[in-house]
Amino acid sequence: MMRAIHHVDLWVSDVDTAAEEWAWLFGELEWEADDQHRSWCHPDGTYAFLEHSADQVEGPHERLRAGVNHLAFTVDSRELLDRMRAESSAHGWHELFADRYPHAGGEEHVALYLENSEAFEVEVVLEAGTQD
After folding, report:
1. pLDDT value of position 35
2. Which end of the chain, N or C, is less surrounded by CB atoms within 10 Å?
3. Rg of the Cα trace of the chain?
């Protein structure tokens, strides 16, 4: 089976802080962490890696500039989505569009929008066909 995405490298300013934030998120999504909690692998083989390089241009991440705006993941349980919402702030994430949860993306779209301390946005979407 071919995968649509092989991997994603996330360039971060502070690897230690980012590792804590992303470790919680990927753990909730059942991605397996490496020994150093710098990369996580989905059961299909897709992986994400945190990187900080001497070649990296310093400055804050700005998701509204050209580049990747956000990453979106699916879950198959509204209970998981609600739990992630309740626990996210304790793990360095804050909710975006909280006043419109769970339909910030429209009435037919059930999702949680989170942003971490470096302004990376993640959308966690309840899989189509799953109960709202």
Report:
1. 82
2. N
3. 15
